[in-house]
Design brief:
This protein is of the alpha+beta class and 677 residues long. Helix content is 43%, strand content 16%. The radius of gyration is 33 Å and the shape is globular.
Amino acid sequence: MMSEDAGQMLVIYDDPSDQRSLSLDETSSTEESPDETRLSLDTTNDAVPYIGQRFATHDAAYEFYSDYAKRCGFSIRRHRTEGKDGVGKGLTRRYFVCHRAGNTPVKTLNDSKPQRNRKSSRCGCQAYLRISKVTDSGAAEWRVTGFVNHHNHELLEPNQVRFLPAYRTISDADKNRILMFAKTGISVQQMMRLMELEKCVEPGYLPFTEKDVRNLLQSFRKSDQEDESIDLLRMCRNNKEKDPNFKFEYTLDSNNRLDNIAWSYASSVQSYDIYGDAVVFDTTHRLTAFDMPLGIWVGVNNYGMPCFFGCVLLREENLRSFSWALKAFLGFMNGKAPQTILTDQNMCLKEAIAIEMPTTKHALCIWMIVAKFPSWFNAVLGERYNKWKTEFYRLYNLDSIEDFELGWRDMVSSFGLHTNRHIANLFALRSLWALPYLRSHFFAGMTTAGHSKAINSFIQRFLSAQTRLAHFVEQVAVDFKDQAAEQQIMQQNLQNICLKTGAPMESHAASILTPFAFSKLQEQLVLAAHYASFQMDDGFLVRHHTKLEGGRKVYWVPREGIISCSCHQFEFSGTLCCHALRVLSAGNCFQIPDRYLPLRWRRISTSPAKLLQSSSDHTERIQWLQSMVSTLVAESSKSKERLDMATEQVYSLLSRIREQPVTSQGARDISYVHRNL
């Protein structure tokens, strides 16, 4: 027998004069016990449907029930229409049901067509509103003849229900604004942020999502994709003819149309040979004008600057496409896989990396995760969002896995996030993004906020909504060379470094490492003076001079020049920590062992001049020469003596150059040079 409380929870109204069986789905399960349900929030009587309620049209009834559903935490859809027997009788009965009514029918798998593996939200919910058409007084009207408010699923809170598809709308004014933004070349994420600022709403509170904006742009797409593909392939083949070391791969679909394409430059392959130990594969961008997912492989060079490795354009973001992209990239790089690779949170990409790069440590870019926090948690946490974010960063930077997991449980409890799916998903993937799980792997510092901003800025330089695909390949090449010229100038501006400790280890490292890498090591050398070292039976205990407990364990084998610390900073960043440096200093070591001054952080590297000489692309070499001339002018203008020397040498050089013959290729590129001066 149903309890009194349960009986009050079950709200079912029916007009005896209009009894009729309701089957929302032929495969629906039997009705669940009311004790296992959560019903609507309390509302005023005027706002709740009731038997006999009248509406002028069935659309008016739908709007009323939809407003009621939104307040209560669900949405509705039109389910079934019925008419009386006889010709010309027309529509006489309509059913509006909960959006989770019915069950999804089993689809027949077709191996020849890609399947969209989307989980259905339908769970056989029996809530509904039935209206019937009556003409008692001559004028037709619609009356409520059936109402069931019994849901077999959790209802959403007010700050969550707005994300249901039925309530996500883009007004005509917003559509025009979005299309205008698309023409300027900004990303969808930037469009969302701008519109949030314009409407003075918190992040995540727009009445539509990023996915809705992408779908809108796709519906208005007017590019001739087939012509674009032909131009792109032609451009890549022309680049290959001019420079045999230019690399590209592509696939065609069953209709002989371009499916995927990837490419890399000779200078990128050479850079990867030195700096390809840690790679970011950023797949979060799209060519807005063509709506193609764009993947960019980027690293960090010895001067801490973004280093471009390659690009890929994909038709689909699935396992097959990502596997093809990774195979193509490894082919460009002569089969050499990176030690570590950072990506966005994409399960298909995660699986593809496990298959194609089984020896590579895969991790998730923390900055790509954090970028989603406003839309994930701002509405849920409200005023507590910033406090929660501070706690998240504290946990992220912990050293101990045990401390992280205990702290995570406390954080979930403190902020009431036990049922939040994003929190659950983050914890399930914690070994891929939380530093306590990653410190023993090398990431070249690319997990820091500074590097993330630099890499994102580098990528944004050549993303444009109005860029045609063929021109995009050229634009990437030009911007890559511009970035290399900036690097050359930065190298020269950082030549004068300042020693702070006077220790022989410091001057030794300064003579080997680039200014960027040395600055990181110098920070640790300065900190080392604040630590005490105690020799133990199995190594050394190092802790801050103000601490009486705790510390780091350091193991040092002087004869073999091997030293390691329990903080794993060298393994993580390629820079020795203050704990290890303190032990070396106390042990009368005046030079850092050679193995702890990695080649990738040293001054000796593939210089711009060597890259220029190795390239067989005439246009590429002209671009390099232009950057060198700019540097020559900047350096020569610093003193009269420099200017005199440069003038004399350049005049002599020009005289010798003019004695050399002019080729047809050079004549063709004269117009290019003038366009880009």
